[in-house]
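Write out the 3D structure for:
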Amino acid sequence: MKRIKVFFVLFCLLLYLPLYGQNNSEIIGHREEDICWVYDQEDNYIFAIALAVNVGDKYIDEDNIEYEIIEVGGNKAICKKKGKVDLLADIGPEFTLQIPLAKEGKKTVAIYHTHNDESYLPGPVNIDGVGEIHEVGDALKEALEKKGITVVKSENLHLPHDGAAYERSRGTVADLVQEEPDIIFDLHRDAIPRKDEYLKEINGKTISQIRLVVGRQNPNQKVNDQFARRLKALADEEYPGLIKGIFYGKGVYNQHVAPHSLLLEFGTHVTTKEQAIASAQLFAEPVSKLLFASKGGTGQKENAGIFSSIIWILGVTGIGVLIYLLINEGSLGGVGKRLKAFFRKELK
C-alpha cells in the first residue's frame, strides 16, 4: 500500500510540476483582449496571435521564415528575423516524410477541446457550452475515419473559458492517453479580428488556415517540434498555404502528458465555421500520410527526442522520490538509511 501511495504522488508530480513557475492566469488565450501584435525590428507587421507571447518564443510563418521574439510590451512584441528554415533539416535525412509516425497496425488520433465555447461569426463567438469548434472537431474526425484512422474524440466540457481551463482539460488528456493514441490534437480557433489573417483559397475554395502551436515548457517539446515540422512539410506539399505557421510559445498546453501533441487553431472568430470545416477536411490528408507513410529509414532523430523526454521524466521522478523521502525521514542521513534498507530487501 505504501508503494502505491508513493507512485501516486510521483504521477501527480509528473503531471503538475511543469506548471510551477508559470502564471496560468495570464494564459487564457483565444479572446480579443489576449491579442499580441508582432512586428520586426524595422516596424514591419509580421503576425498576431491571441495567446501569451514572451521573449524567446518563436514563429515559423507560412513561407517557413523563422522569427524570434526579443521584446514584449503590452499587446505589442518585437521579433528578429532568423531566416528561412528547412523544416526537415534538424530531423535529418534518415527521418524523412517517408517514415511513418505511428507504430504498425491500428492508427489512432485523439481530439479534445480545452476551450469548448469557441465559435465563429455570424453567430455568437463564444457559446456557454458546446461551441462550434466541436463541429470542426467532428469534421476532422469524420475525414480521418474515412482514411482508415481510428479517432477518439472527447466531448468533455472544461468551462469557463479562463486561466484554469488547461488544468481542467488535463484530466481529459490523461483519459485519452489510456486509448494509446499516436497523435493528440487540442482544437481551438484564434481571436484576431481580421479575417484576411486566415483566409486562403485552395483548389478554388476559400478556407481558413490552420496554425500549429507547440509548447516550449515541457519535456516533449523536441518531439512535438519535429512532429509539427513534418506535418507542415507534408501539408505544404499537398495543400500549400493550408498551414499558416507554427508558433512556439512559453507554455505547456498539456503537451507534457504525451508526445505528438499539438494545439491547433482553425481560423479565427471572424472567419466562418464552414471555412474551418473545409480546412479540417483538407488537414486529414497530411495527417493520414504522416501516419501511413511507407518506411524508408530508422527514425533515429525522433527516437532520440523521445529518449530525452524519458530521461527528463526519470530525472523528475528521482527528484520526487528524494523530496518524498526527505519529508518523511527529516534528514539526508535518514534518506540514505531508507534507501539502503529498500535495496537490501528488494535484492534478496
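Residues 84-292 form a domain with the Aminopeptidase fold (CATH 3.40.630.40).
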